[in-house]
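Q: What would this complex look like in 3D?
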Amino acid sequence: MRVDLEGITKSFGSLLANDLVSLTVNPGEIHCILGENGAGKSTLMNVLFGMIEPDAGEIRVDGKPVRFTSPREAIASGIGMVHQHFMLVPVFTVAENAVLGFEPVKKRVLLDRALSRRKVLELSEAYGLAVDPDAIVGDLPIGMQQRVEILKALGHDARLLILDEPTAVLTLQETEALFKIMRSLADSGRSIMFITHKLKEVAAVADRVTVLRRGRVAGQGDPKTLTERELASMIVGRDVQLDVDWGKPKPSRAVLSVRDLTVYDERGALAVDRLNLEVRAGEIVSIAGVDGNGQTELVRSLVGLLPPHSGSIELDGKPVAGASPRKMIELGVGHIPEDRQVDGLVLPMSIAENLVLDLYSRKPFATGWRRDLRAIEENAERLVEEFDIRTQSVNAPVANLSGGNQQKVVVARELSRELVLLVASQPTRGLDVGSIEYIHRRIVAARDAGVAVLLVSAELDEVLSLGDRVAVMHRGKIVDVVNPDVGRDHIGLLMTGVQPSAAENSRTDSRPGSGATERLRELEWRGGGDD
Amino acid sequence: MSGTGDVAWTGGVSDTGAKLIATSTVTPTVISMTRIRGLGVVSLLLTAIAAPIFGFGQPASARVIFTFGSAQSIALPQLALPVRWFSLSMAVVMLLAGVVLLLTQTRRGAYGVFAAAVVAFLWSFLAWAARGNSLNLTSVLASSLVASIPLIFGSMSGILCERSGVINIAIEGQFLAGAFMGAMIGSWTQNLWLGLLAGAVVGALIGLLLAFLSLRYAVDQIIVGVVLVALATGLTNYLTNQLLNPFQGTLNSPSTFPALPIPILDKIPVVGPVLFDQNIFVYLAVVLVVAIDIALFRARWGLRVRSVGEHPEASQSVGISVVRTRYRSVVLGGAVAGVGGVAFTLGSVGEFSVGMSAGLGFVALAVMIFGRWRPYSAFLAALLFGFSDALQSILAVLNVPIPSPFLIMAPYLVTIGVVAGLVGRAVPPGADGKPFLQQSKG
Amino acid sequence: MTERIVGPELELVSDSETGGKKGVGLSPSGLLRSLNSSFAYGRPWAITLLAIVTALIAGAVLLTVTTPATLQAWGSFFSNPIGALSATWFLVGDVYRDIFTGSIVDPPALFQAITTGQGWVAVLTPLSETLTQATPLIIAGLAVAVGFQSGVFNIGAQGQIIAGAICASYAGWAIQLPSPIHLALTVAAGLAGGAIAGFIPGILKAKTGAHEVIVTIMLNYVILNFLLYLLTNRPFRQPGQSNAISRPVDASAQLPHLLGSALPANLGIVLALVAAYLVSWFMKRSTLGFSFLIMGANPTAGRTAGIDSKRVTVLVMVISGALAGLAGMVILSGSTLMLTSGFGGNVGFDAITVALLGRNRPLGVVLAALLFGALDVGGRAMEAATGVPVDLISVIQAIIVLLVAAPALVREIYRLKATSLRSVELGTRGWGA
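A: Here is my prediction, written as structure tokens for the whole assembly.
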């Protein structure tokens, strides 16, 4: 199917999310849309899928102009979308999700479950995407949920498949498997629009690439002739330095030692499995791993939000496992949470108040019961200045700030007190290049001041650039701790749980422990069995 | 999880996945074992109360007579039981249940076992309370069912609304409005069916208002609900004093729906009089439970309603209109609650009096939660509440030395116990109570 | 929504429009945030005023269509349109005039008092009654508002009022002490009674996750029935009385009248204003109050910042309950002196509407309570004078709050310029935690 987008324009308030975007996807082509977060990729796809009506511009399907007012019309025209946040109902079965909106019925109103199941089975056979039609989607691992999304789109007979950041949640191997599926779909004549912000994936799979920057097309071309550096500069609009040298660390005493830590997540599933880790003062240990391998729970248990099931956490030699968040803050543990708007900030409160969110009851911000508003404001003025937070007033609600400035508020607050350990979780997620660089600099400065830093990030570049040592996490365990210059491939392989040196051997052999108990453990991990 | 093809691992739930699940949770498979042990301890406590007081505490000569009489049905012989031995055998059931709950390794059926202990306790309590007297079991069951009727309608209304993602806390208001309109229109037109229809319509209108404010203006649903209850209470109070009382004869004297015995079936002992010799509301309630269960879980309509209540964005992405679906469910739910309200006036009392629903609209919400947003479970929960209500009048007749305010308190205390303990963290539909804004894609 | 966004403007778009998706948008957003946004959208006073006017108009319409005389006049509208209009005009005019003169002041009487210097008691009686009526509404409204601001929906004020009054009543007649000490003890007893009644749903929510809306509603019935039990049994039951009525509190435990014994205004109104000031100070300036506000606006961020959310939930309910208990004490020691089966009337539920109308700010609550108090007092005068049931007032009050809760609706009715069609002014948190 050939799809032309011409002059698509869409604004939200004063922001132009898409500004005269034009591109063409040819039949059988994998067309990659590349751009930073906020470049307007998702807006464009939502326009194409009928979720958003554009202010101006035209969409042509096989040459015919179309107007979609709802996703249903887009689906009817042969467009299918695999959303970044899956559009699957977790409590429904695979079959129910696959047919939702287009359900086969019997006796006019009753669901025809047998037919739904059969449809799913036929589809999964036809495309080699094995799934159990009766499984509850919420119980399935992410990679499998993604398959259901793809099957759902194919079930609606999609001839153009939009994949919105499909690799963000996948392992390298799952990503490769996905690329194979994409290629075979393209070979069968379907068109694919593949959205990503990862440069390396473009070369791996795309036939053509369109780069978006600030809502506009910044460049188009053949990925085979474009270098990574050229693409990168198209993305950010200037030459970028891909690597920064942060200087040598001077590690001293061990500040954080974690031994045999086991943590179950809120749903009661095993998330961190007998994990061992040490972070010394004056070094950054970064944790590499695909999202969902227990990083979140590890961080939450280190800062006291999730009591561990067993094992020990020692801070400067003192056992602190199971201590409350308050206690951890008092012991000098700083925490940059992974989602600032959920965990880090109270959006309607002022910048000044957010800057003392975890310190408000202490001197000098309070004497006894009484909060000292002047001290709070002075503190805010100082930090706003020091951390270059762009605002007109420290009394403005923090909600008024941009993402980068909001994150600076969090970082400023956490670094504004005496720290022993800084736990930074996805500290630059969704930020612009300038803010990223600034926050990196502050984290390194904290390291150089003798703070032990544990950095968790889904961005391999960030992990490698900042980490003095890289601990690779897989299925709740640290698989290995390596030097960042062992190379991306090596670390990438570790992230799938395989020891490169032992890659020839079977997978289970490379893991500590073995036998029946190990197998049970495997089954227990996040409630899912291994196959 | 076999046959998953070439993807290496199947265990992980990613960060986004975890959030997805946290917000739009899977049916709660994780009932904590501690809670089950807790139920076991409660069962043993019940044993400890029942065995000494209702059992050993009774002289061997004390008898209780259970009768099964009813005018229509075929008579069964009455049953005279020694209180001590009957209670003790019930205590054995409680004891066994407690032991099972304390030792079990699986979570399956735990609630069923606990329910058996509770029922056994209630039986021994009844036997004790009625010692030296006779107790007509058929009428106990019949009055339980009748007492549970508003709760059935109310909880079905709640299920319809909340399955689509809108919290309907205005059920109490819909009860009052339905009861009022039913009485007034039924009396004015001298046509009970028109009264029933008017009750449904006014309930639906309140539902429409709830939907309008919460869907169009995204006003907090609980707050709208509470205010709508205040509005309905104020309006019915005002209109009662302004119109019904001065014109009692024309506006507030409807008759009531007569009992409609179903031929032959009503002759079945016990079951017959309980189930097949009732008025229209009982039949309607039972039909409604079955119909809603089919509609929600077997029909296309219900799949869409539930998808909207669990994950509206997903529904929207396949072209289901979230807002329209919610409007429909909430209006329908309102009509159901309105009919439940009519049951107060045209079902039994035959006239409207101010505040006559007495908070049952809120109890119905507890019933819905107890029933975990499922029609059949909510139906059983409603029966349990109805029984505790019926118990109160029986005990009053039997002269049990418990002051009546405490008996009246019982259902409310049970409700607190239910929401606090037994159900644990019952998991509502994923998007329950959350506003959905259609043009919201950034 | 599908990707992180950079840039100040778009960030705002994502904040205000993405809704509950990430838990920080519109849905569970908590009160402070919504309150601030309501002020950001501007003109809350205009909205409130328009809501009141609209509700009065709606009340007039309701009155017209439910009064047989005017209905008949309208029935012959085409033959006698003037008759229909004037009948309506006089009915509505009478009713609203009686509400005003019954609750604020009667202008002719005032004029006469000024010219003759006589009859000041009669002139001041309506206002004094309004103050007395508003007193428990202010305190109970504060109770609900504290909960709202902290993310807890306390519908249990009614029960907590009764619980406070039960304890205050016991302290008021069972103990003999000199006046100021006895009164202070009675106040303390009222606070304690309410606090206990608030503690139960608080601890249940903290420990088991039981939703406070259900638990507090159920407790209302439990406590009411407990009161009924007490009223018919020793030691509360008044000796020699066949009615269900308690002993009266001693004179030493009564709130002294402020303007002479002929006028009902008593020390309670001072207590209420002090309570409003303290609540305002507590939420704005104290550390504990700040933690309440954080938990109300974003509980996840609060927990991450080291706030013990369960402790806050319990404390919020205890403080809210204690305030409601104080309201009960004020009703008892200031007005009724005895407990009856109908004690507290509807104050606990009106408190919710008062809190909503006052946008959960102490000053707003005071003003809203004065308005509602005036309407209640005026309504009774109206009923006595015209025979129109006082329940008309509760209809008007409900409409006011409904409109205040949906400002966008008011804007649309009056074609005001709206910044956003959808705005959440007040929020609870669904059934979830």
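A: To summarize the key features: Chain C touches chain A at residues 1-13, 15, 17, 22-24, 29-30, 32-37, 285-288, 290-291, 293-294, 297-298, 300-308 (CB under 8 Å). Chain C has a mean pLDDT of 84.
Q: Very helpful, thank you.
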